[in-house]
Amino acid sequence: MKIVAVDCFGYNLRYAHGEYVMSGNRAATSEIGTLVRLRTDEGLEGWGEVTPLGNRYLPTHWAEIRAALHTLARDLIGEDPTNLSAIRRTMDNTLLGGEFAKSPIDMACWDLLGKQAGLPVAALLGGVLQEDFPLYEAVPLASPEEMAEFVTRRGEAGIKRFQLKVGNDPHDDVRRTRATVEAAQEGTIIVADSNGGWNLRAAQIAVKEMEDLPVFIEQPCRDTDDCIFAMRHSTLPLVLDESILNNKDVFRAKYDAGAVSINIKISRVGGLTKAARMRDLMQELDMMISMEDTWGGDIVSAAVSHLAASTKPENFQNASFMNDWTDGHVAGYNPRSVGGRGSAPKEPGLGITVQTQGLEPIFSVS
Q1: Percent of the chain's residues with pLDDT above 70
Q2: What is the rounded CA–CA span in Å between residue 308 and residue 325?
Q3: CB-based contacts of 250: which residues, under 8 Å, 6+ apart?
Q4: Catalytic pick from 115, 165, 254, 274?
Q5: 202, 221 contact by CB (below 8 A)
Q6: Residues linked to residue 49 through DSSP beta bridges, in sequence order
Q7: H-type helices in 168-223, by residue range?
């Protein structure tokens, strides 16, 4: 099989709950997404997606991603998309870095590999270990009352795992967290996620005042060193996210930071291949695993579903279906969650059929 064309499409994804707010006044009602289609000489097509969350969450931007994709596309023509290692070497020889742009290409290659093999991606990642799995939803940063109401409302829809957006004034963040804990149903898992928004002193204050609450603390400060410092005297479990980029960082997360869990975002680590390797290492280290992407719709949700389905349930914390958070329904709103749980499609590849109607053509290289 050979790649004969690389097509890039754009679309806007609106947030399903109005405005998505994180620390540092980072807010969004919609984001700009980029889809990649790989066409082959055998008539099969593979799809991938990357949608950054604004311009100040991680060091990337939608226009930067598209420019990098155009650079990569020229050197992919004639390559075998089912040879994932060779595709990676080609991309790395073309562009140093650019992991966010490489991610949807890698995702599309997995889609094609599954279609050629007649197997779902989850089978190629080791096999299905979870027919269904718990999903979480983020709670946008707002007043304690509004955040508690969000948890109550989404809890009634079956969600039992929540990631609270905190990271501003630490005393206010404690009130937000306490209100949501009190509003949550029994058995709910709650993570207070600063997205690196606290400075050291703010993080220390917040963590100390939350010590009596049954919560996880996620990425209190921007880098791992400061997270270690902020959590030095706390007994609360630590989750790391934005500062973990590769497998070396995973070892540091466990043995230096004492993190019990890492939130893997597919595009942040450079694609489904690297996300799966990171997942496997974390399982060997007996860490808990959360998985998702920075933003997205049906394609991202399908990729996440296959990674989640092939993860050991004893090491699985939760995942997110971004197509529940957004209106990015380019494949008929599939896969779809049921009662706060998700499952992976059983059809070959990602198991979804993408429709191009309504998408904005960005470029095509052949």
Answers
A1: 100
A2: 18
A3: 244, 262, 278, 281, 282, 285, 287
A4: 165
A5: no
A6: 35
A7: 170-183, 200-209
Neighbours of 45 (CB within 10 A): 18
Domain ranges of the chain: 3-118+356-365, 123-343
Taking only the tens place, the pLDDT of each residue in 152-169 is 999 999 999 999 999 999
CATH code, residues 123-343: 3.20.20.120
Q: Is pTM beyond 0.90 here?
A: yes
Check if 265 is active-site.
yes
Binned at pLDDT 50, 70 and 90, residue 89 comes out as very high
pLDDT tens by residue, 324-342: 999 999 999 999 999 999 9
* Helices 272-284, 247-255: inter-axial angle, 10-degree rounding: 30
CB 114 within 8 A of CB 143: no
Q: What angle do the packed helices 62-76 and 99-117 form, to 10 degrees?
A: 50
Q: In what order do the strands lie in the sheet with 3-14?
A: 45-50, 30-40, 3-14, 360-365
CA dist., res. 342 & res. 304, Å (int)? 10
From residue 285, give the alpha-carbon distance in Å to each of 177, 227, 250, 281: 30, 20, 9, 6
Tokens (6 digits) for 163: 């990631």
The three-point CA angle 276-282-285 to 5° equals 150
Provide the greatest CA pair distance for the chain.
60
Q: Which CATH architecture has domain 3-118+356-365?
A: 2-Layer Sandwich (3.30)
Supply the pLDDT for residue 219.
98
Residue count (the chain): 366
Block residue for tokens 């959590």: 231
The neighbouring-strand residues paired with 22 are 26
Kindly name the residue from 160, 254, 265, 274 that is annotated as catalytic.
265
